[in-house]
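Weekly modeling sync, notes
Attendees: S.R. (lead), two postdocs, one rotation student

Agenda item 3: backlog of single-chain predictions. S.R. asked that every request posted to the team notebook include the full sequence so nobody has to chase files. The rotation student volunteered to paste the first one in as an example of the format we agreed on. Action items at the bottom.

Example entry:
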Amino acid sequence: MSEQTINVGDLFSIAGKTALVTGGSRGIGAMIARGYVEAGAKVYISARKAQACDETARQLSEIGECISIPADLASVAGCQRLAREIKTREQALHILVNNAGVSWGASLDEYPEAGWDKVMDTNVKGIFFLTQQLLPQLEAAARPDDPARVINIGSIDGIHIPFVDNYAYSASKAAVHHMTRVLAVKLGPRGVTVNAVAPGFFPSKMTEWLLDNFEQKIVEGCPLQRKGGPADMAGVAIYLASRAGAYVNGAVITVDGGTCLK
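Predicted structure, as returned to the notebook:
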């Protein structure tokens, strides 16, 4: 067997790649966007609130290249508008991180249709149709040994049973995980891998209420006895987007310190 030298620095490099991170203005999306910018990628971020999106892009532009494109991805029209904007700026897109998401908490007896629809539209429909609309740019970036990447952000709530009442959110994230597997099979032959990350508890606007009320329970429920941090999320996102993750396809990677195992 012939030996092949592996340059570890190149193996994990994403320098020069172009990425779009949805929901990139705060929380997990901002953690990933910062990691990509610091690693030398050109990063577009989108978020529903224009001011927050612009401000995060401004901050990240101090360390690299980051461009704000505000967008609401709860509708097909919103996905199409964002995709058109990317297409006017880039012929190829190496990395698409589908992170935009919402949650809605209510008891089983009182869970509203409006909340269910909002969560499903943003968390599931938005991922599918934005990926669909950006396929030409993703395929243009693909190389035989370095495919384009779609990274969907799921949740451990789509794997285990959460202790709070967030019925649509849990269902939507389980759907994201399985949609990831389906798209991995369909898009692999087109030079695009599709994987999902299922985070545990990371500080964000979405988890603020949970951490304010249940932080001790959350920490004690994690075998590593801590919450997730920016490096934890940036690390797995960079791995999946780099040459090191080129043969990973259809995986759902939990980043939760082992919480799902308890």
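Discussion: group reviewed the output briefly. The chain has a mean pLDDT of 95.
Action items: rotation student to repeat for the remaining queue; S.R. to check formatting next week.
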